[in-house]
């Protein structure tokens, strides 16, 4: 991580997905909040962008638990399943743990970026504050990015694009259009596809992602419609696709668990640090190139994160 690079316009080389479990809510406990579990999972950019794999094979992982040396909030214990009893024989976070964390990060190609959901308001200030408390800090070259505004920016566009591309997967419908001489409808489809390209979405990766979602969850793909229904289908799409109707607003919850449900149509196993990290990685990987580009443009320096202590 000691390599030189232009920090004003980085192309992130190593993404380190981060999740913390704590003694309670940071907003409620403030400087008394302590980390009880930390998980880091690192993936290189080229492995993350490889759409040939449903999920990156090459991952580097670190998971640590700590004795908080203070009583934990009952609600927090019920959520993450850790308790003072379970952690009583472990040491608290110490300079030795800092060495482990910094060594883990230093072995990765630069630029290195921590990635966390709601990281700006939780994971990043808490981690920096805990390290400050033991007199340590991570290198100033370390970057970080919060995926919460990223999903607010990219999720709706991705879902609309995926929905549209699912309409184009049935080649028999193209045959029906050509046989019926529906040039206007073909022009409409091309125009809609061009609109998607103008949103900077990687349409190929979205088409792949629509298959990948079924592969990840072991579901069969949707059977093709009969050839006879193709012409009628596209006429209905043309009639229903007015600018005003295409702009109908859908509201999404941007909690990680809800994003996962939307993208994979199943409920994730949550609130264990490693599970949450993998869930976040899967969601970012599903959207693909547009989200990676967004992170390049919106990351910032970790040492500038505000402290809680």
Automatic annotation (TrEMBL):
Tell me the Gene Ontology biological-process terms attached to this UniProt entry. DNA catabolic process
Tell me the organism's taxonomic lineage: Eukaryota, Metazoa, Ecdysozoa, Arthropoda, Hexapoda
Which residue ranges are recorded for the region named Disordered? Answer: 209-241
**What does UniProt give as GO cellular component?**
cytoplasm
Q: Which residues form the Exonuclease domain?
A: 14-293
The species this protein belongs to is: Diaphorina citri (Asian citrus psyllid)
UniProt name for this protein: Exonuclease DPD1, chloroplastic/mitochondrial
Any Pfam family: RNase_T
For whether the record's keyword set contains Magnesium, the answer is yes
Taxonomy, superkingdom: Eukaryota
Spell out the family assignment given in the record's similarity comment. Answer: Belongs to the exonuclease superfamily. TREX family.
Cofactor(s) required for function per UniProt: Mg(2+)
Q: Which UniProt keywords apply?
A: Exonuclease, Hydrolase, Magnesium, Metal-binding, Nuclease
Which InterPro entries would you find in this protein's record?
Ribonucl_H, RNaseH-like_sf, RNaseH_sf, TREX1/2
Picking any one GO molecular function of the record gives:
nucleic acid binding
Give start-end positions of Polar residues composition bias: 219-241
């Amino acid at each position: 991580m000691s390599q030189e690079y232009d920090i004003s316009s980085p192309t992130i080389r190593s993404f380190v997905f981060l999740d913390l479990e704590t003694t309670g809510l940071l907003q409620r406990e403030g400087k008394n909040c302590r980390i009880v579990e930390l998980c880091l999972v690192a993936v290189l950019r080229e492995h993350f962008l490889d759409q040939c794999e449903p999920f990156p094979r090459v991952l580097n992982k670190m998971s640590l638990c700590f004795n908080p040396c203070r009583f934990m909030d009952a609600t927090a214990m019920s959520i993450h399943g850790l308790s003072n009893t379970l952690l009583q024989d472990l040491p608290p976070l110490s300079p030795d743990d800092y060495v482990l964390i910094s060594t883990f990060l230093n072995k990765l190609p630069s630029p290195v970026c921590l990635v966390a959901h709601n990281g700006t308001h939780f994971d990043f200030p808490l981690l920096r504050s805990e390290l400050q408390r033991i007199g340590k800090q991570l290198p100033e070259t370390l970057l970080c990015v919060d995926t919460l505004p990223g999903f607010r920016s990219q999720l709706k566009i991705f879902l609309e694009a995926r929905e549209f591309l699912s309409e184009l997967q049935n080649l028999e419908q193209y045959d029906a259009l050509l046989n019926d001489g529906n040039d206007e409808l073909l022009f409409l489809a091309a125009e809609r596809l061009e609109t998607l390209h103008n949103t900077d979405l990687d349409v190929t990766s979205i088409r792949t992602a629509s298959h990948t979602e079924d592969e990840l969850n072991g579901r069969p793909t949707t059977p093709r419609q009969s050839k006879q229904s193709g012409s009628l289908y596209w006429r209905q799409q043309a009639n229903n696709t007015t600018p005003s109707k295409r702009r109908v607003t859908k509201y999404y919850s941007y909690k990680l668990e809800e994003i996962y449900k939307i993208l994979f149509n199943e409920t994730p196993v949550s609130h264990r640090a490693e599970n949450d990290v993998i869930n976040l990685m899967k969601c970012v990987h599903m959207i693909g190139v547009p989200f990676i580009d967004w992170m390049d443009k919106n990351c910032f320096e970790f040492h500038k994160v505000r402290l809680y202590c």
